[in-house]
């Protein structure tokens, strides 16, 4: 009886997860290019919407929270404070939402050929980052007009905040992208989480309000939220240099430990997201 050596063949449909994405970099670039090119297809304003939409949202929040509820009282340069935190949450929400629906939105490719399915959520996060850059450009213009001067500390804080947001959105995106193929209720649950993200981080208010009005243990839980940490780094990078030293409320005590805790949470999100994604990946084609 003749035996066939199958040692050089891979089992179809199974890979090494995120690690395989590095070998498919060309396809990843194509997916990112496709995501950015088709977002405003057949739109008269095109990429202008990437500037208009966040500006309108910012103006609404500024009008309601700043003027009507008076949250700007005692907080110097509240517009920069608000917008720097606002774009951080916007980046997370778009990346998280796009990653959650990435498999369903690309069902045609998933059902026809094999490729690392993690490519789709990762590409979705990158596309969200590309759309995040125009908002950063607007913020930089406002900051420069307010007397902002770049420094290594500010740029490092902004970069760390972006990395934390990207890791958190990718980990949660992988988790819910796998669930969403089998249970479409996951997408609705994600919408609730995205709605709460703005209020669960110090975007419209300062962390000192949480410290003054809620139990001490709640502050610990609140501060290990990756979005909270990222927003505070954005405040330090963009808002703090535009206000007098005494107006900056500073970081909470032991902020470096909170940052470490948030990074651990991001790693846990990535590990759990990858495990759940690979668990449901086996039946993607059938479920779609």
UniProtKB/TrEMBL annotation:
Keyword Metal-binding: no
Transmembrane segments: 51-71, 78-99, 119-145, 152-177, 217-237, 257-277
The keyword rRNA-binding is annotated on this UniProt entry: no
Ranges of residues in domain ABC transmembrane type-2: 45-280
Keyword vocabulary terms for this entry: Cell inner membrane, Cell membrane, Membrane, Transmembrane, Transmembrane helix, Transport
InterPro entries named in the record: ABC2_TM, ABC2_TM_bact-type
Entry superkingdom: Bacteria
Membrane topology listed for this record: Multi-pass membrane protein
Record localization: Cell inner membrane; Cell membrane
Family: Belongs to the ABC-2 integral membrane protein family.
UniProt cross-references to PANTHER family, sorted A to Z: INNER MEMBRANE TRANSPORT PERMEASE, TRANSPORT PERMEASE PROTEIN
Protein name, entry field: Transport permease protein
């Amino acid at each position: 009886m003749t035996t066939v050596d199958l040692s050089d063949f891979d089992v179809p449909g199974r890979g090494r997860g995120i690690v395989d994405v590095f070998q498919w970099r060309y396809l990843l670039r194509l997916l990112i290019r496709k995501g950015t090119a088709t977002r405003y297809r057949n739109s008269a304003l095109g990429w202008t919407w990437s500037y208009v939409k966040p500006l309108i949202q910012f103006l609404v929040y500024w009008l309601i929270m700043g003027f009507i509820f008076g949250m700007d009282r005692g907080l110097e340069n509240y517009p920069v404070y608000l917008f720097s935190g606002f774009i951080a949450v916007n980046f997370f929400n778009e990346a998280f939402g796009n990653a959650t629906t990435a498999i369903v939105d690309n069902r045609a490719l998933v059902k026809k050929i094999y490729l690392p399915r993690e490519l789709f959520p990762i590409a979705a996060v990158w596309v969200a980052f590309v759309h995040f850059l125009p908002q950063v450009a607007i913020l930089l213009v406002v900051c420069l007009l307010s007397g902002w001067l770049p420094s290594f500390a500010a740029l490092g804080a902004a970069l760390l905040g972006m990395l934390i947001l990207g890791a958190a959105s990718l980990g949660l995106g992988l988790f819910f992208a796998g669930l969403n193929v089998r249970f479409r209720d996951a997408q609705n649950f994600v919408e609730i989480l995205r709605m709460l993200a703005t209020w669960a981080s110090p975007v419209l208010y300062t962390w000192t309000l949480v410290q003054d009005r809620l139990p001490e243990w709640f502050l610990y839980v609140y501060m290990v939220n990756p979005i909270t940490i990222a927003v505070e780094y954005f405040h330090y990078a963009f808002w703090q240099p535009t206000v007098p030293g005494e107006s900056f409320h500073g970081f909470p005590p032991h902020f470096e430990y909170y940052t470490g805790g948030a990074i651990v949470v991001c790693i846990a999100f990535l590990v759990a997201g990858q495990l759940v994604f690979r668990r449901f990946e086996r039946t993607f084609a059938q479920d779609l």
